[in-house]
Amino acid sequence: xxxxxxxxxxxxxxxxxxxxxxxxxxxxxxxxxxxxxxxxxxxxxxxxxxxxxxxxxxxxxxxxxxxxxxxxxxxxxxxxxxxxxxxxxxxxxxxxxxxxxxxxxxxxxxxxxxxxxxxx
Length: 120
Description:
The protein is built from two helices and two strands; from the N terminus they run ααββ. It is mainly α.
């Protein structure tokens, strides 16, 4: 009977891992799409500036460039939120030194930073 329990437990872990992988892949796909949008926005800024340059009046593009830049900032924020969601799904967190560690870690193995929990 112990064999079947272990088999059942292993299958449950595999299913959880598969779910995690699917979710992380979905989030990474969204990140990639937003990065492509940022690249298109960078190109749009270049087109606007060059068009204004050809008209000998760079101020013509200022309003449109500002709008596109604000869109880029929003997309970058969205990417940051998606990256945080990936860490949450993987049960990870970031240290001040930039390393990614397990969520339950009390100290960073790289720099020694101590994490304070809400219960402390």
